[in-house]
UniProtKB/TrEMBL annotation:
Residues 1-19 form the signal peptide. The keyword S-adenosyl-L-methionine does not apply. Keywords: Signal. The keyword Isomerase does not apply. Transmembrane segments: none annotated. This is STRESS UP-REGULATED NOD 19 PROTEIN. It holds the Pfam family SURNod19. InterPro entries: Stress_up-reg_Nod19.
Length: 409
Protein backbone atom coordinates (compact mmCIF):
# COMPACT_ATOMS: atom_id res chain seq x y z
CA UNK A 1 0.00 0.00 0.00
CA UNK A 2 2.72 2.42 1.04
CA UNK A 3 4.88 1.33 -1.87
CA UNK A 4 1.99 1.75 -4.27
CA UNK A 5 1.33 5.26 -3.10
CA UNK A 6 5.01 6.13 -3.38
CA UNK A 7 5.24 4.78 -6.93
CA UNK A 8 2.17 6.58 -8.09
CA UNK A 9 3.38 9.75 -6.44
CA UNK A 10 6.65 9.49 -8.34
CA UNK A 11 5.06 8.56 -11.64
CA UNK A 12 2.52 11.35 -11.53
CA UNK A 13 4.66 13.92 -9.87
CA UNK A 14 4.70 16.52 -12.62
CA UNK A 15 1.08 16.31 -13.72
CA UNK A 16 -0.11 16.12 -10.14
CA UNK A 17 1.81 19.14 -9.08
CA UNK A 18 0.34 21.08 -11.98
CA UNK A 19 -3.16 19.82 -11.39
CA UNK A 20 -2.74 20.77 -7.77
CA UNK A 21 -1.61 24.27 -8.60
CA UNK A 22 -4.15 24.78 -11.34
CA UNK A 23 -6.96 23.65 -9.10
CA UNK A 24 -5.56 25.92 -6.44
CA UNK A 25 -5.87 28.68 -9.02
CA UNK A 26 -2.22 29.54 -8.77
CA UNK A 27 -1.06 29.10 -12.35
CA UNK A 28 -1.97 31.99 -14.58
CA UNK A 29 -2.14 31.67 -18.32
CA UNK A 30 -2.51 34.21 -21.08
CA UNK A 31 -2.46 34.03 -24.84
CA UNK A 32 -1.19 36.95 -26.89
CA UNK A 33 -0.88 37.79 -30.58
CA UNK A 34 2.16 39.44 -32.16
CA UNK A 35 1.72 42.27 -34.66
CA UNK A 36 0.63 40.97 -38.06
CA UNK A 37 3.03 40.45 -40.96
CA UNK A 38 2.28 39.90 -44.64
CA UNK A 39 3.72 36.98 -46.60
CA UNK A 40 3.30 36.05 -50.25
CA UNK A 41 4.66 32.97 -52.07
CA UNK A 42 8.40 32.62 -51.49
CA UNK A 43 8.69 35.68 -49.30
CA UNK A 44 10.57 35.96 -46.04
CA UNK A 45 9.56 37.70 -42.84
CA UNK A 46 12.45 38.67 -40.59
CA UNK A 47 11.62 41.30 -38.06
CA UNK A 48 12.11 42.41 -34.48
CA UNK A 49 9.07 43.60 -32.55
CA UNK A 50 9.80 45.63 -29.45
CA UNK A 51 7.73 45.90 -26.30
CA UNK A 52 5.55 42.90 -27.05
CA UNK A 53 2.66 41.89 -24.80
CA UNK A 54 4.08 39.84 -21.99
CA UNK A 55 3.15 38.93 -18.41
CA UNK A 56 4.12 41.73 -16.03
CA UNK A 57 5.25 41.82 -12.45
CA UNK A 58 7.63 39.68 -10.42
CA UNK A 59 6.76 36.19 -11.59
CA UNK A 60 8.09 32.70 -12.28
CA UNK A 61 7.49 31.73 -15.88
CA UNK A 62 6.40 28.08 -16.12
CA UNK A 63 5.94 27.56 -19.85
CA UNK A 64 5.98 29.42 -23.14
CA UNK A 65 4.43 28.11 -26.34
CA UNK A 66 3.85 29.69 -29.73
CA UNK A 67 2.62 29.06 -33.26
CA UNK A 68 1.95 30.89 -36.51
CA UNK A 69 -1.74 31.55 -37.19
CA UNK A 70 -3.70 33.26 -39.94
CA UNK A 71 -6.03 36.20 -39.43
CA UNK A 72 -8.90 33.94 -38.41
CA UNK A 73 -6.63 32.31 -35.80
CA UNK A 74 -6.21 29.02 -37.67
CA UNK A 75 -2.82 27.33 -37.22
CA UNK A 76 -0.78 27.58 -40.42
CA UNK A 77 1.10 24.41 -41.42
CA UNK A 78 4.88 24.46 -41.87
CA UNK A 79 4.71 23.55 -45.57
CA UNK A 80 2.92 26.86 -46.14
CA UNK A 81 4.75 29.07 -43.66
CA UNK A 82 7.97 27.57 -42.39
CA UNK A 83 8.86 28.82 -38.96
CA UNK A 84 12.62 29.14 -39.25
CA UNK A 85 12.85 30.60 -35.78
CA UNK A 86 11.29 32.91 -33.26
CA UNK A 87 13.10 34.35 -30.27
CA UNK A 88 11.83 36.17 -27.23
CA UNK A 89 14.34 38.21 -25.26
CA UNK A 90 14.56 40.83 -22.57
CA UNK A 91 15.79 44.39 -22.50
CA UNK A 92 15.62 47.36 -20.21
CA UNK A 93 14.37 50.64 -21.60
CA UNK A 94 14.49 54.20 -20.36
CA UNK A 95 13.55 55.74 -23.67
CA UNK A 96 13.15 54.00 -27.05
CA UNK A 97 16.61 55.38 -27.88
CA UNK A 98 18.05 54.03 -24.63
CA UNK A 99 17.70 50.27 -24.58
CA UNK A 100 19.93 47.93 -22.68
CA UNK A 101 19.71 44.37 -23.91
CA UNK A 102 19.85 41.53 -21.47
CA UNK A 103 20.67 37.97 -22.41
CA UNK A 104 20.42 34.44 -21.03
CA UNK A 105 23.34 33.04 -19.01
CA UNK A 106 25.40 32.00 -22.02
CA UNK A 107 27.45 30.81 -23.68
CA UNK A 108 27.64 32.67 -26.99
CA UNK A 109 29.27 36.03 -27.71
CA UNK A 110 27.40 39.35 -27.59
CA UNK A 111 23.68 38.97 -28.18
CA UNK A 112 24.07 35.78 -30.25
CA UNK A 113 21.56 33.15 -29.06
CA UNK A 114 20.73 35.38 -26.11
CA UNK A 115 17.02 34.60 -26.08
CA UNK A 116 14.99 33.36 -23.13
CA UNK A 117 12.34 31.51 -25.12
CA UNK A 118 11.85 30.47 -28.70
CA UNK A 119 13.18 28.37 -31.58
CA UNK A 120 11.82 26.82 -34.71
CA UNK A 121 9.60 24.37 -36.55
CA UNK A 122 9.57 21.99 -33.57
CA UNK A 123 7.71 24.47 -31.38
CA UNK A 124 4.25 22.91 -31.60
CA UNK A 125 5.18 19.53 -30.14
CA UNK A 126 8.01 20.40 -27.77
CA UNK A 127 7.27 20.44 -24.05
CA UNK A 128 8.34 23.70 -22.39
CA UNK A 129 6.88 23.44 -18.89
CA UNK A 130 9.18 23.84 -15.92
CA UNK A 131 8.41 21.56 -12.97
CA UNK A 132 7.73 22.97 -9.52
CA UNK A 133 9.23 24.55 -7.55
CA UNK A 134 11.32 25.95 -10.44
CA UNK A 135 10.66 28.79 -12.84
CA UNK A 136 12.31 31.45 -14.98
CA UNK A 137 12.34 34.47 -12.70
CA UNK A 138 11.37 37.68 -14.45
CA UNK A 139 10.37 41.15 -13.39
CA UNK A 140 12.48 41.09 -10.25
CA UNK A 141 12.54 44.77 -9.22
CA UNK A 142 16.00 44.31 -7.68
CA UNK A 143 17.42 43.44 -11.11
CA UNK A 144 15.83 46.25 -13.11
CA UNK A 145 18.21 49.21 -13.37
CA UNK A 146 16.96 52.41 -11.77
CA UNK A 147 14.85 54.48 -14.16
CA UNK A 148 14.42 51.61 -16.63
CA UNK A 149 11.51 49.34 -17.45
CA UNK A 150 11.79 45.65 -18.24
CA UNK A 151 10.48 44.92 -21.74
CA UNK A 152 10.50 42.01 -24.16
CA UNK A 153 11.29 41.75 -27.84
CA UNK A 154 10.21 39.14 -30.36
CA UNK A 155 12.16 38.10 -33.45
CA UNK A 156 10.20 36.24 -36.10
CA UNK A 157 11.89 34.61 -39.06
CA UNK A 158 9.39 32.85 -41.31
CA UNK A 159 9.60 31.64 -44.91
CA UNK A 160 6.50 31.31 -47.05
CA UNK A 161 6.85 28.20 -49.23
CA UNK A 162 3.46 28.10 -50.94
CA UNK A 163 4.17 27.57 -54.63
CA UNK A 164 7.96 27.40 -54.36
CA UNK A 165 9.98 25.15 -56.62
CA UNK A 166 12.00 23.47 -53.89
CA UNK A 167 10.55 23.52 -50.36
CA UNK A 168 13.52 21.93 -48.65
CA UNK A 169 15.92 24.18 -50.55
CA UNK A 170 13.96 27.26 -49.48
CA UNK A 171 13.84 26.30 -45.79
CA UNK A 172 17.55 25.45 -45.88
CA UNK A 173 18.08 28.95 -47.29
CA UNK A 174 20.01 27.77 -50.36
CA UNK A 175 21.54 30.88 -51.89
CA UNK A 176 20.92 29.87 -55.51
CA UNK A 177 17.15 29.70 -54.86
CA UNK A 178 17.15 33.18 -53.32
CA UNK A 179 19.26 34.65 -56.13
CA UNK A 180 21.19 36.87 -53.75
CA UNK A 181 24.82 37.84 -53.99
CA UNK A 182 25.01 40.17 -51.01
CA UNK A 183 24.09 39.59 -47.40
CA UNK A 184 21.65 41.75 -45.45
CA UNK A 185 24.33 44.38 -44.77
CA UNK A 186 25.26 44.56 -48.46
CA UNK A 187 28.51 42.64 -48.12
CA UNK A 188 29.25 40.14 -50.90
CA UNK A 189 28.51 36.54 -49.96
CA UNK A 190 31.55 34.28 -50.30
CA UNK A 191 31.27 31.91 -53.27
CA UNK A 192 31.75 28.83 -51.06
CA UNK A 193 28.77 29.83 -48.88
CA UNK A 194 25.96 27.70 -50.27
CA UNK A 195 23.12 28.38 -47.88
CA UNK A 196 22.01 29.70 -44.54
CA UNK A 197 20.79 32.88 -42.89
CA UNK A 198 23.00 35.11 -45.04
CA UNK A 199 20.79 34.24 -48.02
CA UNK A 200 17.23 34.32 -46.59
CA UNK A 201 16.96 37.61 -44.74
CA UNK A 202 13.89 39.84 -44.77
CA UNK A 203 12.64 40.95 -48.20
CA UNK A 204 14.46 38.16 -50.05
CA UNK A 205 12.34 35.74 -52.03
CA UNK A 206 12.73 32.05 -52.66
CA UNK A 207 12.16 30.83 -56.20
CA UNK A 208 8.48 30.24 -56.98
CA UNK A 209 7.28 27.79 -59.65
CA UNK A 210 6.46 29.45 -62.91
CA UNK A 211 2.81 30.35 -63.21
CA UNK A 212 2.00 29.87 -59.53
CA UNK A 213 -0.71 32.28 -58.46
CA UNK A 214 -1.08 33.14 -54.82
CA UNK A 215 -1.69 36.35 -52.97
CA UNK A 216 -0.22 37.76 -49.83
CA UNK A 217 -1.84 37.00 -46.52
CA UNK A 218 -1.63 38.31 -43.03
CA UNK A 219 -0.14 36.11 -40.32
CA UNK A 220 0.91 36.49 -36.73
CA UNK A 221 2.51 34.62 -33.90
CA UNK A 222 0.15 33.45 -31.19
CA UNK A 223 1.94 32.72 -27.93
CA UNK A 224 0.83 31.48 -24.56
CA UNK A 225 2.71 32.10 -21.34
CA UNK A 226 1.97 30.37 -18.04
CA UNK A 227 3.32 31.69 -14.79
CA UNK A 228 2.90 31.98 -11.06
CA UNK A 229 3.53 34.97 -8.85
CA UNK A 230 7.01 34.88 -7.40
CA UNK A 231 7.29 33.68 -3.82
CA UNK A 232 10.08 32.54 -1.55
CA UNK A 233 9.48 28.85 -2.26
CA UNK A 234 10.19 29.26 -5.99
CA UNK A 235 13.68 28.35 -7.21
CA UNK A 236 15.00 30.28 -10.23
CA UNK A 237 16.57 28.50 -13.20
CA UNK A 238 19.36 29.89 -15.32
CA UNK A 239 19.04 29.44 -19.08
CA UNK A 240 22.01 28.29 -21.17
CA UNK A 241 22.05 27.87 -24.91
CA UNK A 242 24.90 25.70 -26.17
CA UNK A 243 26.02 25.65 -29.79
CA UNK A 244 27.87 22.76 -31.42
CA UNK A 245 29.67 25.26 -33.70
CA UNK A 246 31.03 27.37 -30.82
CA UNK A 247 34.76 27.79 -31.40
CA UNK A 248 35.24 28.56 -27.72
CA UNK A 249 37.18 31.71 -28.68
CA UNK A 250 35.93 35.08 -27.51
CA UNK A 251 37.99 37.61 -29.41
CA UNK A 252 38.15 40.79 -27.44
CA UNK A 253 35.48 43.28 -28.44
CA UNK A 254 33.98 41.11 -31.16
CA UNK A 255 30.32 40.39 -30.55
CA UNK A 256 29.27 39.31 -34.04
CA UNK A 257 29.68 36.06 -35.91
CA UNK A 258 33.03 35.51 -37.60
CA UNK A 259 34.82 32.26 -38.40
CA UNK A 260 37.33 32.91 -35.60
CA UNK A 261 34.90 34.01 -32.94
CA UNK A 262 32.36 32.20 -30.83
CA UNK A 263 29.15 30.60 -31.97
CA UNK A 264 28.69 30.20 -35.72
CA UNK A 265 25.07 29.12 -35.12
CA UNK A 266 24.81 27.30 -38.45
CA UNK A 267 26.85 24.69 -40.26
CA UNK A 268 26.76 22.54 -43.38
CA UNK A 269 26.34 18.82 -43.70
CA UNK A 270 28.10 17.43 -46.78
CA UNK A 271 26.49 14.47 -48.47
CA UNK A 272 28.20 11.20 -47.61
CA UNK A 273 28.70 10.36 -51.29
CA UNK A 274 30.75 13.54 -51.78
CA UNK A 275 32.92 12.86 -48.73
CA UNK A 276 33.25 9.10 -49.22
CA UNK A 277 31.78 8.70 -45.77
CA UNK A 278 29.08 6.25 -46.85
CA UNK A 279 30.84 3.63 -44.72
CA UNK A 280 29.64 5.27 -41.52
CA UNK A 281 26.00 4.79 -42.54
CA UNK A 282 25.73 8.35 -43.82
CA UNK A 283 25.59 9.98 -40.41
CA UNK A 284 27.29 13.34 -39.97
CA UNK A 285 28.53 13.59 -36.41
CA UNK A 286 29.58 16.95 -35.07
CA UNK A 287 31.08 17.20 -31.59
CA UNK A 288 32.17 20.13 -29.53
CA UNK A 289 33.55 20.71 -26.07
CA UNK A 290 32.09 23.57 -24.04
CA UNK A 291 33.14 24.82 -20.64
CA UNK A 292 30.31 25.76 -18.27
CA UNK A 293 31.02 28.94 -16.32
CA UNK A 294 28.68 28.02 -13.48
CA UNK A 295 27.15 24.85 -12.21
CA UNK A 296 23.89 23.55 -10.86
CA UNK A 297 21.22 20.93 -11.27
CA UNK A 298 19.74 20.29 -14.69
CA UNK A 299 15.97 20.79 -14.59
CA UNK A 300 15.13 20.75 -18.30
CA UNK A 301 17.01 20.21 -21.54
CA UNK A 302 16.14 20.09 -25.22
CA UNK A 303 18.04 20.26 -28.51
CA UNK A 304 17.26 22.15 -31.69
CA UNK A 305 17.93 20.64 -35.12
CA UNK A 306 16.76 21.12 -38.68
CA UNK A 307 15.39 18.66 -41.22
CA UNK A 308 17.85 15.77 -41.52
CA UNK A 309 18.66 15.84 -37.80
CA UNK A 310 18.66 12.46 -36.11
CA UNK A 311 19.28 13.51 -32.53
CA UNK A 312 21.66 15.29 -30.24
CA UNK A 313 23.30 14.34 -26.95
CA UNK A 314 24.90 16.40 -24.22
CA UNK A 315 27.53 14.60 -22.14
CA UNK A 316 29.12 15.53 -18.84
CA UNK A 317 32.89 15.55 -18.46
CA UNK A 318 32.99 11.99 -17.12
CA UNK A 319 30.99 10.76 -20.13
CA UNK A 320 27.62 10.57 -18.41
CA UNK A 321 24.64 11.46 -20.58
CA UNK A 322 23.00 14.68 -19.42
CA UNK A 323 20.30 14.55 -22.07
CA UNK A 324 19.54 13.00 -25.44
CA UNK A 325 16.99 14.93 -27.45
CA UNK A 326 15.56 13.56 -30.68
CA UNK A 327 13.51 15.13 -33.43
CA UNK A 328 9.91 14.10 -33.91
CA UNK A 329 9.08 14.08 -37.64
CA UNK A 330 5.54 14.68 -38.82
CA UNK A 331 3.80 12.25 -41.15
CA UNK A 332 0.51 13.94 -42.01
CA UNK A 333 -0.98 17.10 -43.37
CA UNK A 334 -2.26 19.02 -40.40
CA UNK A 335 -0.45 21.79 -38.55
CA UNK A 336 1.71 20.11 -35.90
CA UNK A 337 2.16 16.92 -37.92
CA UNK A 338 3.53 18.09 -41.27
CA UNK A 339 5.09 15.26 -43.25
CA UNK A 340 8.89 15.39 -43.34
CA UNK A 341 9.22 18.38 -41.01
CA UNK A 342 10.58 18.39 -37.49
CA UNK A 343 7.42 19.10 -35.52
CA UNK A 344 8.81 18.47 -32.04
CA UNK A 345 11.93 17.62 -30.07
CA UNK A 346 11.96 15.17 -27.19
CA UNK A 347 12.91 16.81 -23.90
CA UNK A 348 14.67 15.76 -20.69
CA UNK A 349 13.30 16.32 -17.21
CA UNK A 350 15.86 14.69 -14.91
CA UNK A 351 14.58 14.02 -11.40
CA UNK A 352 15.55 17.37 -9.83
CA UNK A 353 18.86 16.97 -8.02
CA UNK A 354 19.93 13.87 -9.95
CA UNK A 355 21.94 15.51 -12.78
CA UNK A 356 24.55 18.00 -11.68
CA UNK A 357 26.94 20.16 -13.67
CA UNK A 358 29.88 21.70 -11.83
CA UNK A 359 31.35 25.12 -12.53
CA UNK A 360 34.21 24.75 -15.01
CA UNK A 361 33.02 21.35 -16.21
CA UNK A 362 33.73 20.57 -19.86
CA UNK A 363 30.60 19.27 -21.53
CA UNK A 364 30.55 17.53 -24.89
CA UNK A 365 27.77 18.36 -27.28
CA UNK A 366 27.12 16.00 -30.17
CA UNK A 367 24.73 16.71 -33.02
CA UNK A 368 23.92 14.05 -35.63
CA UNK A 369 22.47 14.48 -39.09
CA UNK A 370 21.51 12.08 -41.83
CA UNK A 371 24.05 12.90 -44.54
CA UNK A 372 22.51 10.93 -47.39
CA UNK A 373 21.81 14.36 -48.87
CA UNK A 374 23.66 17.61 -48.41
CA UNK A 375 22.12 20.14 -45.99
CA UNK A 376 22.86 23.84 -45.64
CA UNK A 377 22.20 26.15 -42.72
CA UNK A 378 21.58 23.39 -40.18
CA UNK A 379 21.87 23.90 -36.44
CA UNK A 380 23.01 21.94 -33.42
CA UNK A 381 21.85 23.80 -30.35
CA UNK A 382 21.12 22.60 -26.84
CA UNK A 383 19.00 24.52 -24.42
CA UNK A 384 19.39 23.76 -20.71
CA UNK A 385 17.82 25.12 -17.52
CA UNK A 386 19.98 24.91 -14.45
CA UNK A 387 19.04 25.55 -10.82
CA UNK A 388 21.72 26.60 -8.36
CA UNK A 389 19.81 25.27 -5.42
CA UNK A 390 19.32 21.61 -4.59
CA UNK A 391 15.61 21.03 -4.54
CA UNK A 392 13.80 19.04 -1.88
CA UNK A 393 13.38 15.35 -2.59
CA UNK A 394 10.19 14.30 -4.36
CA UNK A 395 8.96 12.19 -1.45
CA UNK A 396 9.25 15.08 0.97
CA UNK A 397 6.25 16.66 -0.75
CA UNK A 398 3.53 17.29 1.80
CA UNK A 399 1.32 14.19 2.11
CA UNK A 400 -1.77 16.26 1.37
CA UNK A 401 -0.53 16.69 -2.17
CA UNK A 402 0.12 12.98 -2.61
CA UNK A 403 -3.35 12.06 -1.46
CA UNK A 404 -4.81 14.78 -3.63
CA UNK A 405 -3.05 13.20 -6.56
CA UNK A 406 -4.05 9.65 -5.78
CA UNK A 407 -7.66 10.79 -5.65
CA UNK A 408 -7.70 12.86 -8.79
CA UNK A 409 -5.18 11.31 -11.18
C1 LIG B 1 23.74 48.42 -19.82
O1 LIG B 1 24.45 47.28 -20.26
C2 LIG B 1 25.85 47.38 -20.10
C3 LIG B 1 26.47 46.17 -20.72
O2 LIG B 1 25.70 45.03 -20.50
C4 LIG B 1 26.17 47.53 -18.63
O3 LIG B 1 27.55 47.65 -18.45
C5 LIG B 1 25.48 48.77 -18.09
O4 LIG B 1 25.70 48.87 -16.72
C6 LIG B 1 24.01 48.68 -18.37
N1 LIG B 1 23.37 49.91 -17.98
C7 LIG B 1 22.36 49.93 -17.13
C8 LIG B 1 21.77 51.24 -16.83
O5 LIG B 1 21.94 48.89 -16.62
C1 LIG C 1 18.69 37.28 -60.16
O1 LIG C 1 19.14 38.58 -59.80
C2 LIG C 1 19.66 39.32 -60.89
C3 LIG C 1 20.14 40.67 -60.36
O2 LIG C 1 20.72 40.54 -59.13
C4 LIG C 1 18.61 39.50 -61.95
O3 LIG C 1 19.17 40.18 -63.07
C5 LIG C 1 18.07 38.15 -62.38
O4 LIG C 1 16.99 38.35 -63.27
C6 LIG C 1 17.58 37.38 -61.16
N1 LIG C 1 17.17 36.04 -61.59
C7 LIG C 1 16.00 35.56 -61.28
C8 LIG C 1 15.70 34.18 -61.78
O5 LIG C 1 15.17 36.14 -60.60
C1 LIG D 1 38.32 22.00 -19.63
O1 LIG D 1 39.05 22.15 -20.82
C2 LIG D 1 39.97 23.21 -20.78
C3 LIG D 1 40.56 23.39 -22.16
O2 LIG D 1 40.87 22.13 -22.71
C4 LIG D 1 41.01 22.94 -19.71
O3 LIG D 1 41.93 24.01 -19.65
C5 LIG D 1 40.30 22.79 -18.38
O4 LIG D 1 41.23 22.43 -17.37
C6 LIG D 1 39.22 21.73 -18.44
N1 LIG D 1 38.46 21.75 -17.21
C7 LIG D 1 38.34 20.69 -16.43
C8 LIG D 1 37.47 20.87 -15.22
O5 LIG D 1 38.88 19.62 -16.66
C1 LIG E 1 18.56 9.16 -44.37
O1 LIG E 1 17.88 9.79 -45.42
C2 LIG E 1 17.61 8.93 -46.52
C3 LIG E 1 17.05 9.78 -47.65
O2 LIG E 1 15.99 10.56 -47.19
C4 LIG E 1 16.69 7.82 -46.07
O3 LIG E 1 16.45 6.93 -47.13
C5 LIG E 1 17.36 7.07 -44.92
O4 LIG E 1 16.48 6.10 -44.41
C6 LIG E 1 17.74 8.02 -43.82
N1 LIG E 1 18.52 7.31 -42.80
C7 LIG E 1 18.28 7.44 -41.50
C8 LIG E 1 19.17 6.66 -40.61
O5 LIG E 1 17.39 8.15 -41.07
C1 LIG F 1 12.84 18.73 3.94
C2 LIG F 1 13.61 19.79 3.25
O1 LIG F 1 14.66 19.58 2.69
N1 LIG F 1 13.07 20.99 3.28
C3 LIG F 1 13.67 22.13 2.60
C4 LIG F 1 12.96 22.43 1.32
O2 LIG F 1 13.50 23.58 0.70
C5 LIG F 1 13.42 24.75 1.48
C6 LIG F 1 13.98 25.89 0.67
O3 LIG F 1 13.64 25.75 -0.64
C7 LIG F 1 14.17 24.58 2.78
O4 LIG F 1 14.04 25.72 3.57
C8 LIG F 1 13.63 23.34 3.51
O5 LIG F 1 14.41 23.10 4.65
Amino acid sequence: MVLLLLLSTLAFDVSCTQAFLENGNKIKSRTFRSPEFMLGPGSVESNVYYDIDFPRGHIALKSFNAEVVDQAGNPVPLYETYFHHWLVGKYYERRPSDRNFSRNSGLCQGQILGQYFGLGSETRKTATHIPDPFGVEIGNPAEIPEGYQEKWYLVVHAIETRGVEDRLGCIECRCDLYNVTNDEDGNPIKPDYKGGLQCCYGQTRCKVSQGFQGGKRSLSLRYTAKWIDWDSSAIPVEIFMLDVTDTGKRLHGLTGISPENGCQVEYEVESCSSTNAAGNGCVDIKRNSLTMPTGGYVIYAVAHQHVGGTGSTLYGQDGNIICTSKPIYGNGNEAGNEDGYIVGMSTCYPEPGSVKITAGENLTLESNYNSTNKHTGVMGLFYIYIAKQAPNMTFSHPPVQASFCSIFS
